[in-house]
Target: diguanylate cyclase
Amino acid sequence: MTDKFQNDGAQNAAILLKVAQTMAKLGIAPFPRNYELFYEALCGHNPALTRDAAALGNQPTQSQIEQIGVKHHLTGFTAIAADAIRADTARSIAAMSQTLNGGIAKTEAFAALLRDFIGRLESDPVAGMSDFADDAGRLRDAVSVFEREERAFAATMNETAAQLGNLRNDIETMRKASMRDPVTGLANRIAFAAKLAALYDDGNACGPAALALVTVDGLRALAESHGAAVAERTLKKLAPVFRKSVKKNDFVARLGTDEFAFVFHDVSAENAEAIAQRIRASVEDVQIALPNRTFTTQTLSLSTGIAMALTASGSADLFTQAELALRAVHVREKPGVLVFSAAIGGRTAKTYAPHAA
Model:
């Protein structure tokens, strides 16, 4: 059997070549963010993104590409989305400032009229009634205008505040989306990297935690046989299974097409292995409906490699150990769970350099 890791490497190389060929054919600028978009589209991780990219047609503009990248919250397009939000914020603040300055000018004009009226009363207390009535009428009209302008100003301020609130929500949505896998809603590779680093904030493991790297056995074959849409529906069925299988303070992320990572807190190696076995059994209970096969379903399984935070020198070492344990499971050609050990590390030392992530 060809090693899964070698297959994945060859597959990624083929995708990268296809990305370069596709971009060259469509005349797309070789920006890193454009490579990211077409890589994600061709990988099939996000079928909606794949469809949007396919709909671009020949010779798409950079603006069209950026609209898709921002829509699907791709990391490379975050700066563009942030620039748009900053521009909208600047426009809202400028409009609010202009309205505020206008309101201040009108308030000052009204105050000047009122001061003039009071000054005339003080300087000529026996002024004729007709003069007083004329001044009072002008002052009454000015009060009406002032009240009307103040109401309009308050409405404009409320509208601007609402716009700024929406922009703040957009920023928060963008922040959350940049940390989430669009298909499953689970944390993504970026969030996983931050979580893994946090396990060793002070240079030492924060406690008895375990990292479990998982592949969903059969998912790639399912996608190849029945299409990306079936694989997407399957992933959406597996995501809640993963969430329900771990404690509240544990962590689960999707790293790739069929790759996931779990961080279990306050566990021993035996506990971590038992949790992984329980998750695998839950996945094997999931029935996957196949298109055009009413009475036929398919099941999947998991292969899991586990490493313990206390026995690793840091986050990179922890990831490497879990990856080596997972590789050992695939070499056995049978789904299952393995915890990293010195024996596993010794067997793979020639293939993997120490502390390689």
In short: The chain has twelve helices and seven strands.
